[in-house]
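Today's session is about reading a structure prediction critically. Students often jump straight to the picture, but the first step is always the sequence itself: look for stretches that repeat, for charged clusters, for runs of hydrophobic residues. Only then move on to the predicted structure, which in these notes is written as discrete structure tokens rather than atom positions. Here is the chain we will use throughout the hour.
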Amino acid sequence: MLKKFEASTLIIRVMLGMTFFVHGLVKFQGGIENIVGWFDSIGLPGFLAYGVATVEMIGGAALILGLGSRIVSIILSLLMIGAIVKVKLAGGFLGNGQMAGYELDLALLAMAVFIAINGSKMFALDQLIFKGKQEETTSFSRI
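Below is the predicted structure for this chain, in token form.
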């Protein structure tokens, strides 16, 4: 049963990571200055576009590799809450014909919250890097 749960969590973690990585990459490839201008137009400081794109790329890569999955997922959850509240909520769940709705953002938020709560150990670099420390903690807690 545990292996099924971990395999399912791995799928969610990797797909979430790929989605965020690609979204961040596209922001840079498509001209980050366009995103900066758009941020300014909706009342956010333009420099936040660099932060958002960087968090999406680095956070996405970290999720794919399984590095700091819980912390990264919390940060990405906050990013999605901000996107939903500041940008997408006015357009409705499915959008209003002029802009997309918040259905994808909500799904990504749910996935990120799931990983933040449960973690993801299968094929995660965290398990290799911190293996000794986790075994010590586990054996200590059993005493």
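Discussion point for the tutorial: Residues 135-143 have pLDDT under 50 and may be disordered.
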